[in-house]
Amino acid sequence: MQEFEHSPSPDHKPYVRKVTLPSGKTIEVISFEDLDTPATELHVCPACSSELVYPLAWEEADRARWEVSLRCPNCEWHETGVFEEDAIQRFDETLDRGTESLVDDLRRLTRANMEEDIERFVAALNAEYVLPEDF
Fold this sequence. Notes:
With 135 residues, the protein is of the alpha+beta class. The protein contains 1 helix and 5 strands; from the N terminus they run βββββα. It has one helix at residues 85-126, and strands spanning 12-20, 26-34, 54-62, 65-71, 78-84. The protein has a 3-stranded antiparallel sheet with strand order 3-4-5. The protein has a two-stranded antiparallel sheet with strand order 1-2. A hairpin with a 5-residue loop joins strand 1 (12-20) and strand 2.
């Protein structure tokens, strides 16, 4: 496997995401975001800096802006504000990455639980705790 090295320029901010492959090997995926102008990051709490802020509600305010009610689960900060389309787009992408990560974790946990159930069942069969008449 060939590894590529990338030196970020000062105009880019790295975003690192750890991915666990089905084999159990963990890799880091690094992407870089442009930092042309300071951007409003709606997933970051202005009160406690948690990156878990999520929307309670959102609706279109006008053609290029959205009214969004936000909540931080760590410190219970909440706010409703009107945000530009680009901030909303970044927020939506962050939420999508978070959802993808949660679904991946759920799949891994489900598989691990199923494997444990199968191992217990096989052990019960081998110990003759489960007999044909049990079915």
